[in-house]
Sequence to fold (414 residues):
Amino acid sequence: MGNGFVAAETRREEIMRVSTGLFLENGFAATSMSKVAAACKITKASLYHHFTGKDELFIACVTHGYTPALDDLRALENDQSLDPVTRLREAISVLYEMTIKSEVGRMSPLIAEVSRAFPNVARSFHSDYIGPQQEIVWRMIADGVDQKVFQPVDRKSFFHLLFGPIVTLSLSREMFTSFEDLEDHFPVEPLKQSHTDALLKLIRSCA
Amino acid sequence: MGNGFVAAETRREEIMRVSTGLFLENGFAATSMSKVAAACKITKASLYHHFTGKDELFIACVTHGYTPALDDLRALENDQSLDPVTRLREAISVLYEMTIKSEVGRMSPLIAEVSRAFPNVARSFHSDYIGPQQEIVWRMIADGVDQKVFQPVDRKSFFHLLFGPIVTLSLSREMFTSFEDLEDHFPVEPLKQSHTDALLKLIRSCA
DNA sequence: GTCTATACAGTGATAGAC
DNA sequence: GTCTATCACTGTATAGAC
Fold:
C-alpha cells in the first residue's frame, strides 16, 4: 500500500472479485458456477481448478473482505487525538459504511441464505467478523466509561440498539433494491445522524 | 373462530401450511416442488394443479400470514382502556412476537433471497405488511403526542430505532440457527425489555 | 383432482488431453 | 492452468389417461 507497487491480480483473486459481484447481484443459488466461469472467461473445469466447489468459493468471497473492513475501525481505536464521544460518532459512521456499502456487509443476507446448508459460513462470519467488530467498539465504550464520559451500559442491550438499525437498513436496501424510490424510503445519512444522536443521548452521563 | 365450527382444510391450504414450514426450514432455493409434493403426499403434477409455479406458491405462503399478524396490533390500537405509554409497550411486545415468532415475520430473509427474481414479492410485502404495520404504530405515537405524553418525533428516525433492532434480532436468530447457544447470544426477552425502556426514555416528554 | 410418464434445460463436478 | 467432453442428477413444468 502506498509504496508504488501494485501486485498483479492473480486468477484466484480475479475470480473472487467477479463472483462476489455476481453473488451480490443475484444471490447464492442463482449464481451458478457456469455463470461465474463465463464472467471470468474461463471454463468451468478451470474454475474448479482454483476452487474445490461452490461453497469454498463463496466462503473465500465472504472472508476476503473481513480484514480491510475491520482495519478502518482499528485505525479509529488507535487514534489518540479523539475524545470518547467523537470516537464513538466516527465509529458509528464507519459501521454504517461497513454494513451498507462494503461487500462483506452487503453479503449478510446471503450468509443467512446459505447458513443452513453451510453452517461453517455462519460460524466464520460470526467469529471472525461480528465478534472482532464488537470487541473493538466495546473497548471504545469501556474507555468512555472509565473517563466518566459514558454511563455504564449492558453490552448486549447496547449492541442491540447500535447494530440493529444499521443491519436492518442494510437488509432493507438489499431486499427493496428494485424500488425506484429506494433513497427516499431508506436514506442513509439522515437515519445515521438521528441514530447517532439518540445513542449518545442514552449513553452520555448527564447528571 | 370460537363458534365451534372448524372449516375443513382444503388441499390448497394444506399445501401452503406444509410448504411454509419447508421454506422456513430450508430456504427458497433449497425447497423444491418435488419435496413439497412429497411432503404433501401428492405428485408434482397435482401440486402444479393447485399452484401455477413455485413463485405463486411462495407468494401465497407469504401473503397468507399478513392479516392475522396485523390483527393483534389492530386490537391493541382499539383498546380504549390503555394509556399511550402502556399501549406502546404492548405494541412493541406484539412487534417482537410478529417479527421473531410468526411465520410471516420469519419469512423476511427469504423475501430478501427472492426479491431480485420476483420483485413483486418484495412490493407486496412492503405495501401490504410493512406499510400497514407502520401506519398503526404511527397512529399510536400521534395519539401520545396529542395527549402531550410523547414528544413529537421524526417518523423515519423513530421507526429506524423501533424496527431496526427487532428485525436484526430476527435475522440473527435465523442465520445463526445452527448455534447451540443461540438463546444465550440472542435472547428475546431481556433485549425486548431494554429496547422498550430506551425507546420510552427517548420519546417521553420529561421537561 | 390425482395419477404416470416425460420433456428438457441447467446444475455441480470430474477425467484426461495438451 | 486451461481446455474439451461428459457425467449423473435435480430442477421446473407439462401432456394426457383415469
